[in-house]
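User: Some background: our group keeps a shared notebook of sequences we're curious about, and every so often someone picks one and asks for a predicted structure to add to the entry. Today it's my turn. The entry only has the sequence so far, pasted here. Could you supply the structure so I can complete it?
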Amino acid sequence: MNESFNNTIARYQSVLIFLPTKPFFDQIAAALALYLALEKRGKDVEISSPAEMLVEHSRLVGVDKITQTPKGRNLIVSFPGYDIKGFEKVSYDIVDDVLKLNIVSKAGSLPPRKEQMKLEYSGISEESAIVLIGGANESHFPALAEKKFEDASLLHIGTQELSLREGRKIFSFAAPASSVSEIVASFISNELDTDIASNLLMGIYQQSRSFSAKGVTAETFSVASELMRVGGRNREEEAVKKYPSGAVPGEKLSEEPPPRSWLEPKIYKGTSVG
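Assistant: Of course. Here's the predicted structure to add to the notebook entry:
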């Protein structure tokens, strides 16, 4: 399946990665790992989630790259509320590698005001694809309802098939596994580094409940071993070790009885000041 995925994604220069409405930690970890790997391949990549990221996600590398509003690839400059008859011509120059639009107004006409200018993104090119991470049906990816994405090529990675409306085509790379991170790890094995491997390893640990959940197989341990071999770390465990005993919720405290002196009556002696 990894060859099939890589052959498919190779067709597209631009890739938009969409997370579902309520993404699991594992799905975010897998999406970010894929984002970093595709950047290494020289792709133009964007990653978006309808939900805000939480504090617990801050240990994932690249989490600051996640936006809540996917842009698309085409920038449109429009002038709502401005009389088009006031335009003389529109041209552009490139000065010191900076693109400048030159909008010339007719004699006697005022140029557009700032509030009459609008910047927006629309659509994606034929060389672009949308990768959907996780989710169960189309409602989990509200951005797909936007007109600018209606003709996009769709790819899906998850542990279960994604249900889409009739007539909409999708390349499915769903497979049974302990986590989405385990699946993504097999797709990007050539790009693994410490950051990517750590994201994937944390996703596997969290979703598999430290390898105790249903769906964990020998392949899960093999993938985790490879991630650790290239420097992947489970930063959740590292964070716990930084706190003193009793500071982590749910931590089992030592049942060793306190010193006997703690239980004895305390006698305090005062001093008088003459």
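Suggested note for the entry: The beta strands are 14-18, 44-48, 66-67, 74-78, 87-95, 98-105, 118-122, 128-133, 153-157, 171-172. The chain has two domains: 2-72+124-237, 75-122.
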